[in-house]
Sequence to fold (171 residues):
Amino acid sequence: METEINSTKIAEKATEQTDKNENSLRITPTSKDNLISTSHWANFIAIVGFVMLGIMVVISISTFILTPMMGEFQDFQSIPFPLYLVGLIYLIYAVIGFFPYYFLYTFAKKVRKGLETGDQSIFDTGLLNLRRLALFVGVLMIIALSMLLLIVPIVIFTFGMLQSISGGTVI
Fold:
């Protein structure tokens, strides 16, 4: 009796597996060509992004180095904020910007290698990095929109306060 139940379960699982294989997604030659072309462009975008981030880091470091020397010049004494703050903002942006370019680069390399060698695990890793890229950019977008929703009322309130303090005229 148990043997019949076990063999029935095994047969059902085999049938489900066959159904899954028949309905599974296939990569056609056109899809493969499109993915390879996309991976070339993604690789180009990622490399240019890395170069731009490198330039930002160089600007940031040079800002940190040059800020003490620039303070001696009268033209830079009238700036209302310290110049190293610009360097810090560039450095933060470079660190945050590294991750999307890294995910894009890894996507490009892994998908191309997976398609060229026929290795499903490498291809899946490439697609996982595309997912990570979309997730990272999505979270950044949510953070940016949230900050915007917070900043707009603050700006409106500030201008209202300035108008009431100045007697109704705000320039």
User: Anything to note?
Assistant: Residues 53 and 95 are 8 Å apart (CA to CA).
